[in-house]
């Protein structure tokens, strides 16, 4: 009996090692379809809702009618994300990207497993069954629209994602930018909501997730500035990865933070060369400036 238990433990260990060694791509290509962006959007939204997902926002990236992102979540994902203290709520929003060129609409989505490993890090293991089910249900929902097994945009192992940083001396997930300390969660919530309502700093509120019982709020913010926003940096680093957007701001208790641009952009564009990254060297600071304004 002891021998059998030992063998079972060894098998579990080997399976775990194998899973951690698998490479995950940040995006999954669903299809390149002759559907219009509007028709594709309707089919995607219906498919997600049929798997119990909740649609929480959408927008035209950079104001371009041929570029769209749909944001969704689900009750079980929100419950898990809210339990993870270090900005885990950022992982509660999943995204589908639509990009139309020359009569073809490219449908892709942000790979949930990639995001979960990066944002939840070692805590992922505690909720792995539930998170794997969510990722599987996303694939199940979108599979009628095409082949969802084509990853693109790079690849990293779970181990690398959990400790990801772009280069030496670059920030990690655990090195956020501190934007503002408010007198209370209520004050921070009201301030940011009002500023987004008024499109302060050329921003657009794409979605919000409010966890009142946890004093946590997350906003997806469209960066609509013509000179310093998505229109400026996205064509440089790659529009195929548009399901990385919108950028987030998170309020936990009375503290508003954001992920550092040199982490957040690099994670979602892992194939960026240093040369290309240098072409947007002002973008992390530009984004931080906008987020600070939303907190005033």
Describe this entry's structure for a reader.
This protein is an alpha+beta fold and 296 residues long. It has two domains: 26-162, TT1751-like domain (TATA-Binding Protein, 2-Layer Sandwich), CATH 3.30.310; 177-294, TATA-Binding Protein, CATH 3.30.310. It is built from eleven helices and 13 strands. The longest helix has 20 residues, at 2-21. The model is unreliable at 6-19 (pLDDT under 50).
Strand content: 25-35%
CA radius of gyration is 19 Å
Tell me the CATH topology of the largest domain: TATA-Binding Protein
Tell me, what is the CATH class of the largest domain?
Answer: Alpha Beta
Which regions have little confidence, pLDDT < 50, spanning 5+ residues?
A: 6-19
Structural class: alpha+beta
In round numbers, the mean pLDDT is 93
Distance between the termini: 65 Å
Oligomer: single chain
Second-tier CATH architecture of the largest domain? 2-Layer Sandwich
Number of helices: 11
Compressed to H and E, one letter per element, the order equals HEEHEEHEEHHEEHEHEEHEEHHH
Q: Provide the domain count.
A: 2
CATH homologous superfamily title of the largest domain: TT1751-like domain
* Percent range of helical residues: 40-55%
Describe the strand arrangement of the main beta sheet, using strand numbers.
3-4-5-6-2-7
Largest sheet: 6 strands, antiparallel
Rough outline = globular
Number of DSSP strand runs: 13
